[in-house]
C-alpha cells in the first residue's frame, strides 16, 4: 500500500471542483444575463405597446375630432342655408313692398291730379250755374206762370216760353253734370285717402321687414363666424371645392337633359363682345386663374354692394332658381343652342323656374349667400356644359 501516493488523485479532484465551480458561475451569470435580457425585452415590448397605444389613441382622437368637425360643419352649413333662405325671403318681401309703394305713390299722384281737375271743373260749373240763375232772374222768370196765363200777344209768349224752356233744360243739364262731378270728386277723394293710408301701412311693414332683415343678417354672421372656426386643411378645402363643383356640374347635366329647345332662343354665338355684364362691379377673380390646388375659376367673381340688381345678359328661360351648396342662391338661365348663364351668391332671387326673361331684366339681388364673407356675384357662361370665358361675350 505504501508503494502508491494519494497526491495525484487529490490534485485531480481539486481541478474538477474548480472547473465545476467555474462552470456553475458561468451558467449562473449567463442565466442572470439571459433573465436581464428577457426582462429588458419585456420592458421594451411594454414600452412599445404603450407607445403604440398612445399613437392609436391619438389617431382615434384625431379621427373623432375630424368627424366631429365635419359633423359640426355640416350642421353649420345647414344652418347657413336656412339663414340664406330666410334673408332671401325677407329681401324679396321688401322688394315687393317697394313695388307696391311705388305703385301707390303713382296712384296718389294720378288721383291728386284728377282731384285737382275735378275741383276746377266744379268751380267752373258753379260759376256757370250762378250765371244761369242771374240770367233767369234778370229776364223775369219768376213771372213765368203769369206769362203762361196771358192770352195776349201769343207769338211773343210762345217765343218767351221756348226761351225759358231752353234755359231750364240747360240749367238742369248743368246741375246733373255738377252733381256727377261732386259724386266723382267725393269718390276720388276717398280713394286718395285710402291710398295715403295704404302707403303709410306699407312704410310700417317695410320698417318691420328691414328690422327682421337686420336680425337675420346678424344671425347669419354668427353662423358664418362659427363655421370659420371649423378650419379645413388645404386638402380638405380642395376636396370641398371639388365636391361643390361636381355638384354644380351634375345639376347642370340634369337641367340640360330637361331643356326643350325654343325657336325664339338663338343662343349667344353671334353676340361676342356685345353683351353687358350682369352687374356693375369690379372683377376680383378672373376666369381660368387658380382657385385652390389644381382647381381654376370657371367664371368670374364680381364685387358689388348688397341689394344691387343683377340683370340677365340675354333673353332666355329660367332653368334653376334655388339654393345650391357652395354657390348659395343660384339662378341659371337657358339662352338656347346649348348656352347657359349662371348667377350665384345672390341675396334673393326674383324669378322662378320656367319664367321667361328678357335682356337686361332684373333676376336677382347681389348678396353673399353660400358662405361668402363679402358681397358679390359669381357669374358663368357655359356652352354645352363647358365653361367659357365671359370676357369674350361681355364688354
TrEMBL record:
One of its GO terms (molecular function) is metalloendopeptidase activity. Residues 1-35 form the signal peptide. Residues 41-135, 182-261 form a coiled coil. It comes from the Bacteria. InterPro entries: Cell_wall_metabolism_enzyme, Dup_hybrid_motif, M23ase_b-sheet_dom. This is Peptidase M23. Residues 297-390 form the M23ase beta-sheet core domain. CDD domains: M23_peptidase (cd12797). Keywords: Coiled coil, Signal.
